[in-house]
Write a structure and sequence with these properties.
Helix content: 40-55%
Pfam family, one: GGDEF
Number of helices: 20
Protein name: diguanylate cyclase
Number of strands: 21
Subcellular location: Cell inner membrane
Largest sheet: 7 strands, mixed
GO molecular function, one term: diguanylate cyclase activity
Distance between the termini: 125 Å
EC number: 2.7.7.65
């Protein structure tokens, strides 16, 4: 075993010799000490078994103090050489601000080739460890005057090796530890507000896209809060149990697929694109099941899967755009942001590009920008549906109303009258009808023309509507004839209503040209519906007979038709 170990070390030396150069050193002379961007070295321990004694003999590859090495560097050693050229000792604090997402980290402090301190931080057994504070590992060290200290850091990551080192003095360290992740809290807060809003929309509309979008948002905000340390700094929780929340990185695209299928109605209108999305959804669901059993392994191909998802969804969106879908252009805009920023993040997580705020926060920025665009799509779709509904209501209204007077027509009157009759039966309330006819209306048409006759019709219709009760049902039956259904009105109440209408029309003056005023009158037939014994149409026939009597009695008057009830004959 010892021989095998030596052979492994020798091969590692040969592999890294070509990339190893002069070891970078960090000067901690200047005060205040606030070093967040400097050079250090790294060594990937593929065997995951190297010790401190083994690693000191190996060459380290230069890198930046903020680095990412992808998923193939689960155990990585970092080397920082600190030079104190002052005449006084330096009390410093080494911060690992992303320690919340690793399995463990070990600190080895070496001076003059001798190990002077060793500390270990296991996230599975944190138990109020003084080295951990709000997601940041804090290692204190003292560098004597005019001396150097070499610090070895062993990082064991669950999945991606995403590492950062900061060297701070005491005052700067305190400020860094009490700082709030305002940017991340803002992103999470925005998404949480969208979750609540769309949850309410779902309960109001029962649209599936609202609930899929809400779950997409929840997955996104959980991943953002987890990956950028908000959960760790707020709840002070770590370890594999918390790491499993990275499953949200898989559920997020699943709910995005479901949202696309629902909002674009791909199953109904775009079967080819629907099958493509279904295939990708099946792959994502398989990865999700895998992640439930081994999240670390499932996350290893996550970057490649994310790239595939972006290509497929973008291609489907372009296809829907070419087929004329009115909403997909907004999805393309938002998804372009998502693809752009997530593409940058994928390159960062794979270790291809260097650390920057944009690269390290690319996923979060992309998620939020797309989430805002999806919210606009939902709102715009609601507007489209409301416009369609309003258009349908307008068509229904046009089908139910007389185009000239805007009163209800005969067809609508009878359908509504049947309902009011049933209501009167159930409540035991009376119901009456009026038949109203304009007197000598033919003379108006003959004398002033049909356009003036139409003007008189409209004016009388509005007068009847104005002086009717709110609950009355008023309709034009054709020509110069109108009918009024009076809920909760017996003959006495019907007479009062009819007289009010007759008097209002008599007082009406309609100017048909610059010089002429037209005065009109109406005759009205009245009948009370025998609720339970006849229909509204039968009562209208009786009211029409009463109208005939009013016409032959001189017009401009009311006439009541009382029902004939046969007397019982003695047996």
């Amino acid at each position: 075993m010892e021989l095998l170990k030596k052979l492994i070390l020798l091969s590692l030396l040969m592999i890294n010799a070509s990339v190893a150069g002069a070891e970078p050193r960090v000067d901690v002379t200047k005060t205040p000490v606030s070093l967040t961007d400097f050079s250090m070295g790294y060594f990937i321990d593929d065997s995951q078994a190297l010790t401190y004694q083994d690693i000191t003999a190996l060459p380290f590859t230069p890198t930046n103090s903020k680095t990412t090495l992808g998923t193939s560097a689960r155990v990585t050693w970092f080397k920082v050489i600190l030079d104190n050229a002052t005449g006084e000792q330096q009390q410093l604090f080494v911060h690992l601000p992303h320690a919340y997402h690793v399995r463990s980290v070990d600190f080895y402090q070496e001076r003059d080739g001798r190990l002077v301190d060793q500390q270990s931080l296991d996230m599975e057994e944190i138990d109020d460890d003084p080295l951990m504070y709000r997601g940041t590992a804090v290692y204190p060290l003292t560098i004597p005057a005019a001396q150097s200290t070499t610090l070895y850091l062993r990082s064991h990551a669950y999945s991606h090796q995403w590492f950062a080192v900061e060297v701070l003095d005491e005052q700067t360290s305190r400020r860094a530890l009490i700082s709030i992740k305002t940017d991340i809290a803002l992103l999470v807060g925005m998404m949480l507000a969208l979750v609540v809003y769309n949850g309410l929309l779902y309960f109001a509309t029962s649209k599936k896209e609202n609930i899929f979008y809400s779950f997409y948002l929840i997955s996104g905000l959980v991943w953002i809060a987890l990956s950028y340390g908000l959960i760790a700094s707020t709840f002070d929780v770590y370890g594999s149990g918390v790491f499993k929340l990275n499953i949200s990185l898989i559920t997020m695209p699943i709910f995005l697929m479901l949202f696309m299928m629902a909002v674009f109605e791909t199953k109904r209108f775009y079967p080819t694109e629907h099958r493509v999305l279904q295939a990708l959804l099946a792959l994502l669901c398989g990865t999700l099941i895998w992640g439930l059993f081994d999240i670390s392994a499932a996350l290893k191909p996550a970057s490649s899967l994310a790239a595939l998802m972006m290509v497929v969804t973008f291609s489907v969106s372009i296809s829907l755009y070419r087929k004329g879908n009115p909403l997909v252009v907004y999805f393309l805009i938002g998804h372009s942001f998502f693809v752009l920023f997530n593409g940058i993040a994928v390159l960062f997580y794979k270790g291809i590009i260097a650390h920057s705020y944009l690269s390290s926060h690319g996923v979060g920025i992309g998620i939020v920008l797309e989430a805002l665009t999806l919210a606009f799509i939902i709102s715009h779709r609601i507007k489209i549906l409301e416009d369609i509904r309003a258009s349908q209501e307008e068509l229904k209204k046009q089908a139910a109303t007389d185009p000239l007077t805007k009163l209800y027509n005969r067809r609508f009157f009878f359908s509504e009258a049947d309902y009011l009759l049933e209501l009167a039966k159930n409540r035991g309330t009376p119901l009456a009808v009026l038949v109203v006819d304009i007197d000598h209306f033919k003379q108006v048409n003959d004398q002033y023309g049909h356009s003036c006759g139409d003007q008189v019709l409209v004016s009388i219709a509005q007068t009847l509507k104005t002086h009717s009760r709110t609950k009355d049902l008023l309709a034009r039956f054709g020509g110069e004839e109108f009918v009024v259904l009076l809920p909760e009105a017996d003959l006495q109440e019907a007479n009062r209503c009819a007289e009010r209408l007759r008097a209002a029309v008599q007082a009406l003056e309609v100017r048909v040209n610059d010089n002429d005023l037209v005065h009109s009158t109406v005759s009205i037939g009245i009948a009370e519906v025998m609720v339970g014994n006849e229909g509204v149409e039968a009562a209208l026939n009786r009211a029409d007979k009463a109208l005939y009597q009013a016409k032959h009695s001189g017009r401009n008057r009311l006439c009541v038709e009382t029902p004939f009830i046969a007397e019982a004959q003695p047996g």
